[in-house]
């Protein structure tokens, strides 16, 4: 697990580096918050995923829809923004507050919020009025459906500790996958 986390962190560092694939000028803080958010998600682990094997689920992350080479710059930024917004919303619920260490959770929320602020500025740079419908296009809709499935899963599992652990690992994976944008 430590090797996988190290590999994911390396992917994030490459993706969020100044030479990353998004064309807008993201602040160095955006890079740092991206790395820190993944590290925080790793630290939030409360129980071993081995205890939750019966709760594992394939959430059908829309990898083919969010691969950076498949999207135009404005679409890629919009999809990344949607992923961060949905992650922020997920970890900003009353039920998530009961599941996690409040200090780590608040740090994660702050980091996600900062990344969203940076991407808002970036969206303004690359999106014209003709692009305002991007949030309703295939890739963004796929991300929204993906997160809807996560919310349904949590409800079905009664927001159990294992359900939250499964989601924590899944969000780490999806945010790491988004580094190809």
Structure, briefly:
With 181 residues, the chain is mostly helical.
Task: List the defining traits of the structure above.
0% strand; hormone activity; 181 residues; mainly alpha; Growth Hormone, Chain: A; antiviral defense; disulfide bond; hormone; 66% helix; disordered N terminus; 8 helices; cytokine receptor binding
Query: Can you give the helix content as a percent range?
Result: 55-70%
Total tally of structural domains? 1
Rg, rounded, reads 16 Å
Give the low-pLDDT segments. 1-21
> What is the CATH T-level topology?
Growth Hormone, Chain: A
Strand content: under 5%
**Could you state the order of secondary-structure elements as H and E?**
HHHHHHHH
Mean pLDDT: 78
How many angstroms does the end-to-end distance come to?
24 Å
Number of alpha- plus pi-helical segments: 8
Subunit arrangement of the protein: single chain
The main sheet comes to: none
Question: In total, how many beta strands?
Answer: 0
User: Which structural class should the secondary elements be placed in?
Assistant: mainly alpha
Tell me what the CATH architecture is. Up-down Bundle
Subcellular location: Secreted
Signal peptide: 1-23
Keywords: Antiviral defense, Cytokine, Disulfide bond, Hormone, Pregnancy, Secreted, Signal
Family: Belongs to the alpha/beta interferon family. IFN-alphaII subfamily.
Describe this structure in words.
By secondary structure, the protein is mostly helical. It has eight helices and no strands. The protein has a single domain (24-49, 57-179), classed as Growth Hormone, Chain: A (Up-down Bundle), CATH 1.20.1250. Helix content is 66%, strand content 0%. It is globular, with a radius of gyration of 16 Å.
